[in-house]
Amino acid sequence: MIPRLDRRLFLGAGAGLLLTGCSTASAGDTPAAPATSSAPTTASAWVTPRELPAGWGSGQDDGVFPRTVVHAAGSTTVPARPTRVVVVSTGQMDAALTLGVVPVGATAGDGAGRVPDYLRARFPDRSADLDAVADLGTRTQPNLEAVAALAPDLVLVNASAKDGDVLGALQAIAPTVVTQGTGLRWKQDLLLLADGLGLRQRAQTWLDEHHARAAALAPSPSPTVSFLRRNGDRVRVFGVASFSGSVAEDAGLARPQGQRFTDETSRDVSAEQLDLADADRLFFGVQGGDAAELTSLPTWGDLGAVRTGRAVQVDDDAFFLNTGPTAAQIVLEELERALG
């Protein structure tokens, strides 16, 4: 098997940068394919896009500035290497740290901290830097005065900000690169975010290593793998076009019949429909971490994966809340442990 990815691969040359990451993508750039037990053989067969949409990005080598980056809301010229970057959207802190950088400011999400615990655990040597990251409010309502006070030279945000006045306000503060967002588009998000930072080739190297490692996992025949989450009153199964589903796709793993959908990220299920979560291996997360919120459901014990001891509770933050490369590494490690 290919050696495990070393997160320190990207620390060092980029460690002096202060910035954060964002999400990117364009709907409909890569046609969806039905889930199967074998990995696709062509780039167009992947449900999760692996490249930027045509014409996006800067086309510049790493470290070349100024660079004009085409993104989800137009184009932005970044005049010099960013040294004070803020991130507004899901997964951007993860992407930045994976590339060896720490933001000067970041927002928090619904149920997620400004710096998720899994990132603190993965980057213990950056603890002091992470403690210094300024609080910029929430992802849906960033504190614009706090953003301006940081005097950033690059802002990263995803396309949801285009629905209100937030994007225009951010663009008035500093050069702003806008990604598409969603777990389906996390690889495009990583590449576009990295392009704004002048680190796109570095991000591509990370993705190439990830894809090679995932492909080395694929057993034949593939067991089915299932992803299930409870947050509040909602219980959902996650399909192929989801963040955790994308990592299973990278590894060529089959999904149960009820999770082969590609038209949405997840589907709500009732306790009576919990059989849609059954598979050879079941990975489940609970927001807040209390497994009893799922395991106490009356139909939980009826699942074959539960009866055979093949239902594993996972880090909800990494599997279902954040859509960055380090989270993807955690998902892949869980798959390796269960299937290796």
From TrEMBL:
Gene3D superfamilies linked to this entry: Nitrogenase molybdenum iron protein domain
A Pfam family reported for this protein in Swiss-Prot or TrEMBL: Peripla_BP_2
Signal peptide range in chain numbering: 1-27
Every Fe/B12 periplasmic-binding domain range: 84-340
Cell compartment(s), UniProt: Cell envelope
Highest taxon, organism lineage: Bacteria
Main subcellular localisation: other
Statement: the UniProt record of this protein carries the keyword Transport: yes
Key words of the record: Signal, Transport
Protein name as it appears in the record: ABC transporter substrate-binding protein
Native source organism of the sequence: Kineococcus endophyticus
